[in-house]
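Quick one:
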Amino acid sequence: MALREDGIGQTWLVPRRLVSFIPDNHLCFFITNLVDGLDFKKNERKYKYTKGKPAYSRHMLTRLVIMASVDGIFSSRKIMKLAEENMVYMYLSGMDKPDFRTICRFKIECAEQIEEAFKMTVIVAKNSGMVKLKHIAIDGTKIKANASSTNLINQEEIQTIRELLKKGIETDEEEDKIYGDKRGDEIPPELLSKTKVKKMIQEARKANSDTKNENKLRKTSSKLLEQASRSPEQKKLVLKKLEHAENELEKTKQKTISLTDPESRWMMNKKNRMELSYNMQIAVDYDSGIILANTVTQDPTDHYQLIPQIEHTIETIGQLPDDTAISADYGYFTKTNLQYLDENEFDGYIPNRKQAHETKKHFKTYKPFSKHNFIYNYEKDFYLCPNNEKLEYKKTYKYNNVNMRQYYTNKCLNCTNQLECTGKNRVRIITDYGNVLSKRMALKMGTEKGKIEFAKRKMTVEWPFGNIKENLKYTEYLTRGIKQTQTENNLIIISHNIKRIHNQKQNKNISNNQLNT
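Output:
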């Protein structure tokens, strides 16, 4: 067998193009085509006819950050390194080498274009026939914020720091009036006597013992005071931080927030531990696994997130078909959400707390005469028992200011299943205390179709979260603030959708080749 010569250091007579080193089916070519469809004219206009070094192409920077997110890389410093060393990134950058600060600024400046790139992945998937819109599942997960849990502050500390800073400013003004241009540490002639000096020291010690506010401050607040004392500019920065922190405290019922990211919130994670986090919400197409909508919210609950997800989906791909099923967990089971689904005639599937609990526990004991097996007739206002007997409406009474409607029939006394259903010599009474929409949804979820549709939710929405957290290793946001985390979130979802589209195309090409052979 012949041995190849070591080719390191050799030069080519005709230089080869970078693209010749990249496989034909590489994702970077799809990303290039996707980004070419974005419009950056508005962003690029401000760089025209200005002095200084020409700015980098917005298309080039977008290609870099999207390719990096597909590879699970979100650090701007690492992207800069890849643009200098990696063939794929060198091709996407056109051999340009932007520094990490340029990449950081670009993510903030072109947040709208990155969001448009996400929407384009959805449109491409829909136009290629991947997105069927037969079933859409909605869910959320908590992602840890880039915020220190020790760098906390509350309203009392904010007020204390402001008072101390105000006191310091007033002291400076008074000293300016007294000393003028002098240092102020010269000893006045009248203080040269020992008795007067001793008296001043005693008064100062007494004043210090009376000030309790300084002792209440945490280490974080003490550092803010230290920063403010350096210069007037630093004092302005501290006051700006305090204003931002106070505004965020007013928005939430939580008592403390983090100064590193005041917009993050305390949320319970999967391990039942409180962490400073954001709530990532997604809507996923069942057939393709494409994420149709995504938002980052400060709300620890899912109660108000169903409507935004549906509306964002419609905004991206247009009106949903009439037969589209929409499923969500019991965290979305609210009167507002049920009313929205009903008014817009969406085919929704959301279990109440009891039904969700039964689904998770996988109860093996089936109770044929459970209340959920009594079917309600909305047109004629009666319940139908499992033995096809009607329980007519009889009366209404109030309990805790809630109208309780009762349904029953005397035919229970002659029923062969009386003992199993209600007990000896008794009639079965169905008490209805919920609103019509929640009743309708609960009965719908108890049907066979409701159980099948809701079972699709777990298969649809859980694995994208698994892909993001396990494959992309994305368990914590790198940026701070709700706007920047939303941009970062868009990049994560873009990478997920691009991989789904690319894998689908690859599978089609493989199957077509197999058919041809």
